[in-house]
Design a protein that fits this description.
Blueprint: H1 7-17, H2 25-38, H3 51-64, H4 68-80
Length: about 90
């Protein structure tokens, strides 16, 4: 089996066989909880935006493969948590 491996794959296999890998299950659970809380929808908000902005938002959501309301919620979440980067 190891004959068909490239150098990187051989290094990974050797590392694994030498028990150099560490479980990160605690980190995974922490990130799963954060992701779940990020998209928890427990409040309803109604807003008025221009038709053009809504169409652009829906177009962007289609490109991203998301429902437009999910995209809108994500953008708002990133903004209020200071993680929204600006291209200005």
């Amino acid at each position: 089996m190891s004959q068909n491996l490239n150098n990187e794959e051989k290094e990974l296999l050797e590392s694994y066989e030498n028990d150099e890998w560490v479980s990160i299950s605690e980190d995974v659970n922490k990130y799963k909880a954060a992701a779940k809380n990020t998209f928890k929808k427990n409040k309803r908000v109604n807003i008025r935006i221009s038709e053009v902005d809504l169409e652009l938002l829906q177009e962007r959501a289609l490109i991203e493969g998301l429902p437009y309301q999910t995209l809108m919620s994500s953008v708002l979440h990133k903004y209020v948590t200071g993680r929204l980067s600006s291209n200005i």
